[in-house]
Each structure stands twice: as C-alpha cells, then as structure tokens.
Amino acid sequence: MLVDLLSAYSNHHDQIEGMEHVLCRIAANDQSGLPGQVPSGSPSRSRSVVDRLSPADIESLVARYRSGVKLKRLADDYSISLSTVKRVLRKHGARRRPIRGEVSREDAV
C-alpha cells in the first residue's frame, strides 16, 4: 500500500515542468509577476489627490470640515482615506479642531 501511495504522488510530469519553468526564470533573472513588483509602464506612485478630487471638491471638503463635519464622514463621502483628508485640510490651512475633552493650546495658556 505504501508503494502505491508514493507512486501516486511522486514525479508528476506537470510538477516537473513547473519547476523547470521556475528554474529558467531564476536563471534569466525574470522577476515579473512577483508580489510587490510594479509592472513596467505603470506609474510608480499612486494617484494624487488632484487626480481624484476637483478643486471644487477640495473647497467643499474644507468648508464642510470648518462647519463641523467629522473627518471620518468626509473620508467616506469623498472616497478617500482619513490621512488624505487630514493632508488636504493641512495643505489648505484648516485648523485642527480639539478632540472632545482635549484642552487646546490657546486655552492652556
């Protein structure tokens, strides 16, 4: 029984061909298709905010934040990350609102 089991799982031709293919790629230093590799011809950086939001959208985002809308809500509404919302607000001079219960610098003096 043991011999039959080994013969059923050993030396499959398709496995050997796959291994030969991998060895040829290693020899040729072919790294295409590896995880984390950027395909040639594609941009190396992600799309910038101006590619995703129009100037009117950015103005609206800043105005809504200043009127009290929460950061998470803005991120969801504009389909951007929370860090992108913060970066846009910082770039456009929107002052950070204190977190509930937090004392602002002006109040601490």
Put simply, the count of helices is 7
* Overall mean confidence score, pLDDT: 75
Estimate the global geometry from the Cα principal axes: elongated
Rg is 27 Å
Distance between the termini: 84 Å
Q: Encode the helix/strand succession as letters.
A: HHHHHHH
- Category by helix and strand content: mainly alpha
Proportion of β residues? under 5%
What percent of the residues sit in helical stretches (DSSP H or I)?
55-70%
Low-confidence stretches: none
How many E-type strands?
A: 0
> Tell me about the biggest sheet?
none
Protein architecture, described:
The chain is mostly helical. It has helices at residues 2-9, 13-27, 49-52, 55-66, 71-78, 82-91, 105-108. The longest helix is centred in the first third of the chain and has 15 residues, at 13-27. The protein is elongated. The termini are far apart. The mean pLDDT is 75.
